[in-house]
Amino acid sequence: MYRNLHVIAMGCLVLVGIFLLAFNGRARTRADFVWNNTTEPQTLDPNRMSAQPEGAIAMALFEGLTVYHPGDLKPVPGVARSIRQEGLTYIFDLREDAFWIRRGEILRAAGGEPRRVTAEDVAWSWRRHFLPEVGSEYSHLLHAVRGAREFEREMADQWARTVEGFRAARGRPPTGPEDLDPQGRLELERFRCQRWDDLVGIRTPSASRLEVELVTPVPYFLHLTSFYPLLPVCREAVEEHGERWVLPENMVSNGPYWLEEWQFNAFLRLRKNRHYWETGAYALRRIGELAAQAEPSGIEARELE
């Protein structure tokens, strides 16, 4: 009898221990909205995305020149406060109150001033699509821009020559520009910048103005500037952290929400960006996304509470 009581008591202690471990440190404010995203996102880098599960998250974290109107999905101003068209050229004037955010706070520039989203940020992000090491599957979206196809071909040819030279010297191909010596990286960047300026019809006459010259009419061009692959990213974050810039502790974004948590194959947790220029229009304070592998009634779901 006493043996049976001992077994029962030990079993109860084990169950209590499991319960305490499951809920230890889990006290969180309940998410206002949770959805199942069907699969784990493969990346949170918009320039490398190619599927809707990632895109749904990106459009909460980032904002493009235009955004889709929630009523009819027509493009309306986003980062760009005004847009006009002169022939085949689109002119975007950017907002003064669109900022880059890290961990819910405005990123600061080297001089301490708030880091705005600039025309150069958009141009640099779009240029990334044509770099071989990035591997964008959506570079063709920008092929209607003057000189974009030529720039893409030159970047592929130049990188192939760089790889062959590196292989001959080191006996292996480089994994990316970061494998090159400082002088090699500098020369590579200079070449890319020069050819971009020479060939491509994207100009930044000021921090607040972006001009895009097309070679053919594209009636849906402003829909493209809302699409997640063309969302701008912050150059400083990408260059400082490499591929790890998309992790919560490193991510810099500019959308209505920022990335609070990401547990692989379990969930994402996004929090409202109080510095977003239109934050008053967003009622949800916290939103959460479950991967398809997560059990809706399990611990992973309680993480979002």
At a glance:
The chain is of the alpha+beta class.
Tell me what the structure shows:
- The protein is of the alpha+beta class and 305 residues long.
- It has helices spanning 2-23, 52-61, 119-128, 148-170, 182-199, 221-224, 235-241, 299-302; strands at residues 33-36, 66-68, 75-77, 80-86, 89-94, 101-102, 105-106, 202-206, 209-213, 252-253, 257-263, 267-272, 286-290.
- The strands form four sheets. Strands 1-13-12-11 form a four-stranded mixed beta sheet, with helices on one face. A four-stranded antiparallel beta sheet has the order 4-5-9-8, with helices on one face. A three-stranded antiparallel beta sheet has the order 7-6-10, with no helix packed on it.
Question: What would the keywords be for this entry?
Answer:
305 residues; four-stranded mixed sheet; four-stranded antiparallel sheet; globular; disordered N terminus
SSE map:
Layout: H1 2-23, E1 33-36, H2 52-61, E2 66-68, E3 75-77, E4 80-86, E5 89-94, E6 101-102, E7 105-106, H3 119-128, H4 148-170, H5 182-199, E8 202-206, E9 209-213, H6 221-224, H7 235-241, E10 252-253, E11 257-263, E12 267-272, E13 286-290, H8 299-302
